[in-house]
Amino acid sequence: MMRSAIVSGVLAASLACAQSQNETGQHPGWPRWCGKVYEPGYPAFEPGGETTEPAPINSDGSPNLYVQLKPRHSIYLAGEGKGSFVVNAALSPWYGEPWTNSTTDGSATEPFTELFFSISLASDNSAGGPIIKGSAPINATAAVFDFDLSGLEPRLAPYDIVLFGNSKFGEQSYMANSSFRYLPDIAPGGSATKIDNLNGGLLFRNAQTGGAFEPLLPYGFYGLYNGSNSTAESQAFVSEYSSDGKGLNGIISLAGFADTNPVYNSMDASSMRFMFDLRSSYKNLTDVEQRVNIAKNHSSLFAYWTADEPDGWQVPFEVTPAAQELIHELDPYHPVAVTLNCQDYYFGEYSGGGDILMADPYPIAINSTFSKWGTACNTTLGDCGCDNCKGNVQDVSSRLDDLIQYEKWLGRWPLPKFINPQAFYGEDYWFRYPTTAEAFVMNSLAFNRGVAGTFAWTWPTSQELFEAHSQMAAVVTNAPVRDFLLGGQPDGNTNVADEPLVDVAYWVKGGQMMVSVVNGASDDLTGPVTLGLPVTAASISAVPFGGLPWGLSDGQLTIETLPAMSASFVILDLK
To answer: Per-residue pLDDT for 258 more than 90?
Structure first.
């Protein structure tokens, strides 16, 4: 979120560069954004920090078996009877241990298509035996295995676990490590948030949910609360923002910090969920401790937000992980989010301090080639308000595609991702607000890439955009659309043949499928337009968003005209 902080932040950025990037040999005093010089008078240079595809492990190109292990949910609470682990046994050119597609005991040879494994507590020394024994198919969808929690003691410290796996006859062996948290129950009046490491979404619990974890797709704004410590003012702020509970369900409240700030109490009394703002204090661990110890007791708290664009300002790499570690120690019941701004500037290092990854490309109405600073914008020079962007809605999907690819190249388990869409203009970077249609399309392109939450910068915004986001929020934060979006990663994510700006994704759940269709072009697509479906549909159940007259014919979705800059959700009953 470039904001107006660029001018005043030049010195801070330069000092941060001096601390974290001296190894590049570049002059630390040069004003930079995302590693690139942006003012005239300085030479362009390669900023570095790119995330690139690793070299294959094997010179012949054969894959290795890369075994990964993760608890299905980031936390479990006392009183829950079972937990689950997710096991990935993927074939990878970059990571893992040698794999041969055969297994033999000397007398029999079979294809090695299944990994047999046991999962044990690392501290158990096998005294009590494995907590799980099972098998997972090689290079298939993540496999989920349940285990019994009743024999474990709830505690604040995580439990370390280890997986031992092998081929059927044991001559190929593998190991993976992870940990999980089995915590004491939340205090009365508190809250807890789980990350779903299988599907990439969140579940939330407080007294309003009846003590049950419910799916949470947070949708809202970064909200500017400039009221006093007046309870009436804070209640009015929450009421106006939430549209009486009919739309927006989340907020990152830029409300400052005070022990008695009533805006958080007002959110506790509503159905609002908030992410607590630590962006001005996450570098000072004493401040972090003070603020977290107060915020963690609120029933509407669902997460913390620490670093705001640390990659843009070149914050020392170790700062965000240190804040994350302290927050987990003080409050293991809520995850930590960070916001990245750059397309790819030390992604691995700057994403390492978050449990949730937020991205904030702001592409609408920018000059993507020449900046207000009097410099050209390209991969090595300049700052045009959206790093390496082209200035269209597809910059949102491209940015998310990049982040997903970087995680794969780094061999990481993917983090849940939120999008921070543009809902502002100004600062001589952005020359108008996004239109309502652009707002819908940018969010839908993000949902098509598995995004599990959205927080626009910033509120107050135009009334038109506020109403538009409230309208979309009312659909995507509630069943049935919410349950599709949080029930699994989307398939598809491919453009329609010969129509590169039409983006389609789909989710299958039970006996239904939801299809998201986005036309990100500036022209209508005339037809009739037909979209093939991956499974056989019997009928259209609902069109919960978009208002377009979709039909079903010969197993294909059809429409006479697909309007420019349009987004639709279509739910179909399957045969």
So the answer is: no
User: How much is the pLDDT for 141?
Assistant: 85
Interval 213-236 mean pLDDT: 91
Decide: helix, strand or coil at residue 7: helix
- Checking 506-513 for CB contacts under 8 A at 24+ apart, the result is 506/533, 506/534, 508/534, 508/535, 508/574, 509/483, 509/484, 511/573, 511/574, 512/480, 512/541, 512/571, 512/572, 512/573, 512/574, 513/537, 513/571, 513/572, 513/574
Name the E strands within 149-300: 159-166, 173-183, 192-195, 202-205, 214-216, 219-224, 250-254, 273-277
- Give the integer Cα–Cα distance in Å for 49 and 387: 14
Q: CATH for 64-183?
A: 2.60.40.3880
pLDDT, mean of residues 528-536 = 92
Which pLDDT tens digit goes with each residue over 455-489?
Answer: 999 999 999 999 999 999 999 999 999 999 999 99
| CATH no., domain 192-486 | 3.20.20.80
Mean pLDDT of 248-264: 86
Question: Helices in 245-309 by DSSP H: which ranges?
Answer: 262-268, 285-295
**Percent of the chain predicted with pLDDT > 70:** 93
Query: How many angstroms separate the CA atoms of 381 and 370, rounded?
Result: 10
Question: Helix or strand or coil: residue 30?
Answer: coil
Q: Are 217 and 201 in contact (CB under 8 A)?
A: yes
CATH entry, 491-574, from 3.40.50.10260, 2.40.50.140, 1.10.10.10, 2.60.40.1180: 2.60.40.1180
Domain residue ranges in the chain? 64-183, 192-486, 491-574
Q: d(Cα 30, Cα 15) in Å, to the nearest integer? A: 10
Same fold, 64-183 and 491-574: yes
321-348 mean pLDDT: 98
What pTM was computed for the model?
0.94
> Which phi and psi (to 5°) does residue 537 adopt?
-100, 145
**Position 7 confidence tier, pLDDT thresholds 50, 70, 90:** very low
Q: How many CB atoms lie within 10 A of CB 21?
A: 21
Cβ pair 508, 559 in contact under 8 A: no
- Give 43-51's long-range contacts (Cβ < 8 A, gap of 24+): 44/378, 44/380, 44/381, 45/380, 46/380, 47/345, 47/380, 48/21, 48/24, 49/344, 49/345, 49/346, 49/347, 50/344, 50/345, 51/344, 51/347, 51/348, 51/406, 51/409, 51/410
Residue range 172-187, pLDDT digits in tens: 999 999 999 999 999 9
Q: Which of the four pLDDT bands, split at 50, 70 and 90, describes residue 17? A: very low
Both structure tokens of 331: 């409050």
